[in-house]
Amino acid sequence: MSITRNRDVIRVVLCRARHAIALALALTAVSACVSVGYQRPGRPIAPRPGETLVFGRLRFFRDGSEFFPWNVKPVWPSVEPNIERHVWLLRLGERAVSAEVHPDPDGSLAIWLAGGDYALLGSTQLPEAGTAPFEVVALLRVPAQSVAAYAGDLILKTESHEGGHFAHGEFGVTSVAVLPIDAARATLERSNGPLPEPPVPSPWCAGGDLPGFNDPRLATRAKERLDTGCAPPAN
Questions:
Q1: Is residue 234 part of a domain?
Q2: 136 vs 10, 78, 87, 190, CA distance in Å?
Q3: What domain range is 61 assigned to?
Q4: N or C terminus of the chain with fewer C-beta within 10 Å?
């Protein structure tokens, strides 16, 4: 599918940052790059003005077996083909996009982001010549004026079918699992030392009824979902 056909479609730009290729929505031209700062294990957590530490995990499964796109260690041979996964963060309403997001090898993610609403965009391909299939994988609200926010585990499951097709898109069925906030905090602090204040919960918003990536009202519909705490839209 071409992503340059009309104003409702995503196009790809290069966004020079710490990591290579970036993705952007193209209802209008991209206005900026989303800054993503990584909180690496072993480094103490120091508050950053205007940013919040968002932490959680991305977990991928195929036919019931977990695999790790950033450090591939398939448990079962059936997960070996078609395991490429790439994700970016789009700041909604600003046409601003991050460089490709790189979790730790086990999918753990601890990143500093400015407060606001985001869409996690995914593709099974790296953009080439401005084309690639993209999905809105999840939504995320980053609360302002909080040192840290816990997003939980974003779980993505695909099942193979005859002919190599997948149910529910390339990234499969999405769901979110959360630990009690104290347990999530303890997990983070084991690697990075104490948080200066308790984290706030702000889970991923996932599900098959998220707005599509080429929806001209993506930002509006995403905000409506996030405003309701990710409740599905009324029928």
A1: no
A2: 11, 25, 10, 32
A3: 11-227
A4: C
